[in-house]
Structures are given as C-alpha cells and as structure tokens.
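Limitations

Structures in this collection are predictions, not experimental determinations, and the ligand pose is part of the prediction. Treat each record accordingly. The example that follows, with XIL as the small molecule, is included so readers can see exactly what is and is not provided: the inputs are given verbatim, and the output is the predicted complex.
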Amino acid sequence: DSLKEAFKNDFTIGTALNSAQIEERNPTVNNLIIQQFNVATPENVMKSALLQPKWGIYDFKMADKLIEYGNKHNIKINGHTLIWHSQLPGFMRRMQSTDSVKTFFNDHIKTVAGHYKGKVFSWDVVNEALNEDGTLRNSIFLQKLGEGYIAEAFRLTQEASPDTELYYNDYNNEQPAKRAGCIKLIKKIQESGARIDGVGIQGHWHLGKIPLKDIEESILAYSALGIKVMITELDIEILPRNFQGADVSQRLANTTESNPYPNGLPDSIQKQLADDYEALFKLFLKHKDKIARVTFWGVNDGDSWLNNWPIRGRTNYPLLFDRNNEPKPAYFKVIGLK
Ligand code: XIL
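Predicted complex:
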C-alpha cells in the first residue's frame, strides 16, 4: 500500500527532495520515496542561488543528480523555481542597473530551462510574486523590469523548453484577496499570448485551521481559467505561532516553544493532524478532475523545513511519516479514503 498507488487514478503524489535524501547511504528514506511518490520537487537545488552561484557560472551537479534519480525510479521532476525573489545569488541581490537585472533574468531562464529541456516535466516558472492583498510584490524584478516580467518569464521558458508544463506557484493564494490577485496575474499571462498550464497552491497550513472553504473556492476559480490546480508544498504546522515579532534569541531560549512535545506528539494532536489531512484529501478527491498533483513539502518529519522555520531548532511534526520513516495515523486516514 502506498500513496501513489492509492491515488493513481486521481492525481500524482509528490514530495520535496533534497540531496541527502537521495544518497544510497540512506536506504530507509530511499525506499520510502520510491514506494510512495511518483513526482518530486527539488527542495533547494534548482533555486537560482544554487544553480548560478556566480554571474554566468552555472553549477548543475546536484540538480542533475536529482534528475537522474527521478529517471531511475520513475519519479517526474517539477523544476523549482526560475524566478523568485528569495534564495537569489548574492551578486544578483546587489545589482543596481536595470540592464544587469534584465541580463540576469534572460540568461538565467534561457540557460536553466534550456539545460533541463526534456528533462523536467514542469517548471514553477515564477514563485511568490504576490503580496497578501493581491498586489504585486515589490521584488527586484518588479522594480527593474516592471509588471510585464511575469508573462515574459513564461514566454522565455516556453521558448527554451517548449514541451514542459509551466506553472505559477504561491502561498496563501487560496485566501480571497490574494486569490483575486492571482487570478488577475494568470489572466495577464494568458492575455499576453504566453502559455500557462497550471497554478500551485503551496498549502503550508496550520493544525486545526485548514481553510477548507477558501481552498475549495480557489480550486473552482482557478480551474475555471482553464488550467490545472496543484497543491505543491503541503505540510501542517503543529507548533504555536504566537512568537511572531519576538526577538529571535529570546525565542530560541524558550525551549518549550521550540519543542513543546519532548516525548513525541500527544495522541490528541496526532488525531487532529490525521483529521486535518483526511478533510483535505476528501476535498481533493471531490475535485480530482481539477487537481493534477498533491506534493508534500518533505518526506518525513525529521527533514521538514518547519524544524528550522521561522526559527531554527524547533521540533515539528507536519508530515505523514515520522522521524523513523514510519507512517503516522494521518497516513492511514488518508489512505483509508480509498
Ligand atoms: C524552503 C526550503 O524548504 C528550505 O530548506 C529553505 O531553507 C528555504 O526554502 N516556499 C517555497 C519553497 O516555494 O521553495 C520554500 O522552501 C518554502 C516556502
């Protein structure tokens, strides 16, 4: 029994992958990946800071390994991501002139999308270009290139890699204001004549607070634009978020806050997590004709970025597999839907 088998007639099932997980010296996690998932998104190795560490100098080694791994194990790769304001190379963050930004933008897309032509199934062409109110984020790309940069990124990617699916990806874009901005953004791409094949709702949600109604309305609204809908970075944060705005060192000193459950997850939380995941997958199944893929942001709790975000050194439990790669109650609830 596995996720990819259970949902094979509904949508593909993905995970984020990092370089350590795919090494042969980690057989347990490797077996789990191969057994459970049929698509993967590189968690970091295809971000611009890693692919183009110095201006004009590309390093494809780690990302190529992931492609090889995917080929070997029948796991399609979703490239992540070409144009994003975060994890940019240092030289790029310091750029002043419009010409330099334009050169970086054109060359990075052409070179990277060209290198992975026919090798990635899809690209998150642009990531997180919106503010919470639906306006465009004031990134270096918006500042120097104007709002047309988004459609232009899609046009350039399509030119470099014509058979690859092209997506826009963001978080909180199931929330009404941001969703409205996202719909506007997608329509602009379509009106420009460039192709967009799908939209990713990242799906970084919180225990007991899954916005099911907003998610359902978003699935319907996005799919009405004629594109695929995907859940691209699914995890459920279980730790309290009430430390927002506090001083970092203070937060780190508070061990109860970084790990309120030193003896493992209490049953009540384990159950709430299972219920939340079950409700989500029920909704995804209800709209399986509109949802192309559901990707978890990590394989097991130990690998999750939420152990280190928004602060380092937390112990989090957001996924379906625990730190020993064992399925949690949430896994059985999700599989039980089939
Ligand atoms: C995260 C990775 O998981 C971390 O390892 C890294 O330190 C920061 O980025 N939205 C995205 C992802 O689109 O690329 C981010 O991934 C999580 C939020």
